[in-house]
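C-alpha cells incoming
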C-alpha cells in the first residue's frame, strides 16, 4: 500500500519556534522512513508538545500523522486509527485540504490492507478522491488509484481493480514516483498472472524486485517478493518460490528489528501518557471556562431582576439569555466529548497496564509451581511461598482494578444460572479455609431450611460478593468467629428474597470511618504488619449489589465486631432449572495423547506452558512467532493450537486468519494476558475457537482442550 508522508512547507512562518518545530517534524518523518521508530516517536512527541503550546493546528496535525504512521508500522492498528483521526480533526481546524486528502488515503489503507474492512476503506478512498478533484491534485489521485487497485487485487477482484490499473499505466510516465514504481510493476505482475500471461507476469515481478533493491525503503520490495513467491508457487516453481518467500521474511525481520520495536514501545507508552495528561489539562481548562461562564450568568440574572419592570429591557434580556443558553449548551457538549475521550484513554491505560503485569505474573506463578512440584524438598521454603503469595496478590489487584473499571463502564451483565445455595457457601468456606486458619478463626454457616434446593440467578457475582465480605471479616478477626447467615425473608411469585448476614467478632469499624469504607482504595483500621488488601473489595461489593438493585447495611462497634446485611431476590422455577441443567455442556474427558502446538514469543512463558502440557502426558511443540506456526503446520498435524496474541511481526489474530485461509480446521485457543471482553469479537472474527486468560488453572485448560478436540473429531466423522 502507498502511505503518504508529505512534509509540506512550514506555510511561510518565519519565527524561530516554527522553524524548529518544522525541523523536528521532518526529522521524525526521516526516522520513520528508515524504520527507526523510537527516534521518530520521540521527535514527533516533542514537536507535538511545542505545536500544542503555540496553538499551531497545522503542525499538530502533522505531528499526529507521523505518530499514527509509526503505530501503523508497529502493527498497533487501533492506536494508528485513533491518531490519524486526531490528525484529521486538526487538519480540518487548519483548513488544509491537501493534508486532509492525505489522511483519508492513509485511513483507507489501514482499513483495506490491515483490518480487511474493505467497505470502510473504500469510503475513505472516495473522500480522498473528492478532495483531490476539488483542489485539482492529480498526484494524489494517482496515489489513491494505486491503493484502490491493490486493495481489489488483494481480494482477487481483478475485474473491479483493472480500470484503476489502466489509469495507473496510462499516467505512469507523468507520475514517475519512486514511491509507486515498485508497486506498479508488482500490480501489473499480479494482473498478468491472473490473465494467464506467465512470461509477462514474470518480467513485471522481476522488474519490481530489481527496482526495489535500489531504494532505502524496503517495504515495497518485501511485498514484491511475497507476491512473486505466490505466483511461482501457483506455477509449480517451488524452489524459486521458497527463495522469494525467504527473502520476504529476511527483509521483514530487518525492518522490524526486535530492539527497535522494544525501544519504540517505551517511547510510545510515554507518548500515551503525555496524551492522557493533555486531555486532563483540557478538562481543567474547560472547568475554569465554565466557572467564568457561571459568573457571567449570575450578572445577567441580577440585571434581569433590576429591569424586569421595563418591557423593552425585558425583551432584550430574554434574547440575550437565549443566546447564552445556546452557547452554554455547545460548551457542555464539547466538555462531554472531552470527558468521553479522557475516559477512553483511561480504559486504554488500564488495559495496557493489566496486560503488561499479567504476562510476567504468568511466568512467576508457573515457575514457582514448577519448583514446588519438581523439588519436594522446597515445599516448606518461606522464600518460594512468599514469592507465590506476592504474585497472586498482585494478580488479585489487577483483577480488582479491571472489575471496578468494567462496572463503572456498565460492561457487567447479570447471568441466569441454576445453583444450590448450600453448595455455593460450602465452596466459599473451603476456598477461605487457609485464610481462616492463618488467624485461628472459625467459619460457621446457618442456612434457612425454607430456601428451595435450586435457585436461578447470577451465582458468580453472588460468590464474588460473599468472598469479598467473608475474606475481609477474616482479615480483621483473630481467634474469633465469622458467621454466614442466610434467611428466606419473603416470596413474591417466583422470586425468593434471601437475606445474607456476614457477622464477625473482630476489631470493628469506628463510626467516623463507616461512610468511607465503600470508596475505592480506602483502608481503615489497618496496620501494615497485620492486614493485606487493595482497598477495592468493599467498593466492588457495593457496585455489584447495585447490579442486583439492592444496597448493603453496616453495623459495627470498635472491639465488638461488624455485621453486613443485604437482600437479593432469586428466581425459583423447577422447569426452567431443568432446562438450564440439560443445556450445560458435559465435560468430555479423554485418555488420548494429544499433540499441541504453542505459538508464543516469550521464552519464560514458553517454558511454563510446555511444562504444564507435558505434565498431562501430551506432546507439545513450541514456535516463536506466527511465521514459525505457518511453517510447521505445513509439515505437521496438531490436535490443537495455543496462540499468543501480542507477538511481533505478525500478531495472533493475523496468524489465525492465515491458518484458516490455508483450510486448516485445527482448533485454535487464544492464550493471552488481555482481558477477555477486549478481544472476544476480534478473536471470533479471526477464526479462534476459545480464549484462556493468563495466568490460568491447568484444569480449565485441559477441559477446553478435551472438549474442542473431541468436538472437531466428531464433526470430521
Amino acid at each position: 500500500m502507498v502511505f503518504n508522508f508529505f512534509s509540506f512547507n512550514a506555510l511561510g512562518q518565519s519565527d524561530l519556534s516554527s522553524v524548529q518545530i518544522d525541523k523536528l517534524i521532518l526529522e521524525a518523518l526521516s526516522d520513520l522512513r528508515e524504520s527507526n521508530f523510537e527516534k521518530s516517536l520521540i521527535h514527533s512527541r516533542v514537536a507535538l508538545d511545542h505545536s500544542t503550546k503555540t496553538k499551531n493546528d497545522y503542525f499538530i496535525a502533522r505531528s499526529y500523522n507521523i505518530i499514527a504512521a509509526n503505530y501503523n508500522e508497529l502493527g498497533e492498528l487501533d492506536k494508528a486509527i485513533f491518531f490519524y483521526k486526531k490528525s484529521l480533526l486538526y487538519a480540518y481546524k487548519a483548513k488544509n485540504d491537501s493534508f486532509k486528502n492525505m489522511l483519508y488515503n492513509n485511513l483507507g489503507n489501514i482499513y483495506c490492507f490491515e483490518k480487511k474492512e474493505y467497505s470502510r476503506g473504500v469510503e475513505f478512498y472516495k473522500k480522498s478522491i473528492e478532495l483531490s478533484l476539488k483542489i485539482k491534485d492529480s498526484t494524489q489521485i494517482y496515489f489513491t488509484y494505486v491503493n484502490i487497485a491493490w486493495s481489489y487485487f488483494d481480494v482477487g477482484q481483478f475485474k473491479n481493480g483493472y480500470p484503476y490499473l489502466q489509469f495507473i499505466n496510462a499516467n505512469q510516465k507523468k507520475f514517475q514516483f519512486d514511491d509507486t514504481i515498485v508497486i506498479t510493476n508488482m500490480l501489473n505482475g499480479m494482473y498478468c498472472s491472473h490473465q494467464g500471461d506467465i512470461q509477462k507476469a514474470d518480467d513485471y515481478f522481476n522488474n519490481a524486485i530489481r527496482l526495489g533493491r535500489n531504494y532505502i525503503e524496503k517495504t515495497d520490495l518485501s511485498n514484491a517478493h511475497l507476491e512473486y513467491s505466490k505466483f511461482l508457487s501457483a506455477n509449480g516453481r517451488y524452489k524459486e518460490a521458497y527463495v522469494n518467500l525467504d527473502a520476504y521474511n529476511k527483509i521483514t525481520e530487518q525492518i522490524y528489528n526486535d530492539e527497535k520495536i522494544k525501544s519504540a514501545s517505551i517511547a510510545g507508552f510515554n507518548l500515551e501518557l503525555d496524551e492522557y495528561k493533555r486531555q486532563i489539562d483540557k478538562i481543567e481548562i474547560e472547568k475554569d471556562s465554565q466557572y467564568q461562564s457561571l459568573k457571567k450568568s449570575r450578572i445577567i440574572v441580577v440585571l434581569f431582576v433590576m429591569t424586569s419592570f421595563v418591557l423593552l429591557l425585558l425583551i432584550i434580556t430574554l434574547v440575550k439569555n437565549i443566546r447564552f443558553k445556546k452557547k452554554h449548551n455547545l460548551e457542555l457538549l464539547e466538555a462531554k466529548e472531552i470527558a468521553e475521550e479522557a475516559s477512553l484513554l483511561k480504559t486504554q491505560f488500564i488495559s495496557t497496564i493489566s496486560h503488561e503485569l499479567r504476562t510476567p505474573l504468568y511466568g512467576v506463578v508457573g515457575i514457582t509451581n514448577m519448583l514446588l512440584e519438581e523439588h519436594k524438598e522446597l515445599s516448606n521454603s518461606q522464600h518460594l511461598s512468599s514469592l507465590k503469595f506476592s504474585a497472586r496478590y498482585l494478580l488479585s489487584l489487577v483483577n480488582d482494578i479491571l472489575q471496578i473499571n468494567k462496572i463503572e463502564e456498565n460492561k457487567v451483565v447479570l447471568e441466569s444460572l441454576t445453583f444450590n445455595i448450600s453448595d455455593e457457601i460450602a465452596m466459599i468456606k473451603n476456598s477461605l479455609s487457609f485464610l481462616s486458619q492463618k488467624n485461628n478463626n472459625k467459619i460457621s454457616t446457618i442456612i434457612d431450611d425454607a430456601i428451595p434446593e435450586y435457585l436461578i440467578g447470577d451465582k458468580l457475582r453472588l460468590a464474588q460478593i460473599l468472598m469479598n465480605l467473608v475474606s475481609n471479616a477474616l482479615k480483621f478477626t483473630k481467634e474469633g468467629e465469622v458467621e454466614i447467615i442466610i434467611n428466606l425473608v419473603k416470596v413474591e411469585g417466583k422470586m425468593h428474597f434471601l437475606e445474607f448476614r456476614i457477622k464477625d467478632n473482630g476489631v470493628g469499624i469506628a463510626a467516623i470511618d463507616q461512610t468511607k469504607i465503600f470508596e475505592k482504595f480506602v483502608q481503615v483500621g489497618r496496620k501494615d504488619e497485620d492486614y493485606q488488601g487493595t482497598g477495592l473489595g468493599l467498593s466492588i461489593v457495593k457496585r455489584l449489589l447495585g447490579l442486583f438493585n439492592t444496597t448493603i447495611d453496616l453495623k459495627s462497634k470498635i472491639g465488638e465486631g461488624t455485621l453486613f446485611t443485604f437482600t437479593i431476590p432469586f428466581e425459583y422455577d423447577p422447569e426452567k432449572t431443568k432446562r438450564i441443567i440439560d443445556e450445560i455442556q458435559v465435560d468430555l474427558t479423554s485418555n488420548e495423547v494429544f499433540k499441541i502446538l504453542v505459538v508464543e514469543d516469550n521464552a519464560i512463558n514458553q517454558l511454563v506452558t510446555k511444562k504444564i502440557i507435558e505434565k498431562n502426558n501430551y506432546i507439545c511443540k513450541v514456535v516463536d512467532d506466527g511465521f514459525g506456526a505457518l511453517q510447521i503446520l505445513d509439515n505437521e498435524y496438531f490436535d490443537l493450537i495455543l496462540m499468543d496474541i501480542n507477538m511481533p511481526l505478525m500478531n495472533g489474530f493475523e496468524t489465525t486468519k492465515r491458518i484458516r485461509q490455508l483450510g486448516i480446521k485445527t482448533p485454535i485457543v487464544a492464550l493471552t494476558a488481555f482481558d477477555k471482553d477486549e478481544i472476544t469479537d476480534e478473536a471470533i472474527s479471526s477464526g479462534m475457537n476459545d480464549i484462556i486468560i493468563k495466568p490460568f488453572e491447568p484444569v480449565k485448560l485441559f477441559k477446553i482442550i478435551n472438549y474442542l478436540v473431541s468436538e472437531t473429531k466428531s464433526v470430521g466423522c
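note: The CA atoms of residues 2 and 591 lie 53 Å apart.
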